[in-house]
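Lecture notes, unit on protein representations.

Consider one protein chain, 80 amino acids long.
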Amino acid sequence: MRAAGVDPAAMLRPPLHQGAYDQRLGTVYTAHCRPAEGRVTYRWSGESWEQSFAAFSPGSRTVTLGLEVPNPPDAHGHAV
């Protein structure tokens, strides 16, 4: 059972996730912020990156946009 609130995996499925990159209307990423836990998870189709507010680890990601992933990740970043 999931607590009330936003379903992070739903943010990577239509209609919220848009793949119209050729029209410059595609979703780049989604951020799931959890201030009470001091955490944020950045999500792309097929990938996620979790960070802590208290111990943010600088870094970078290279993501290829424009390719739809058939099974977007669930709330924990696992393929459904």
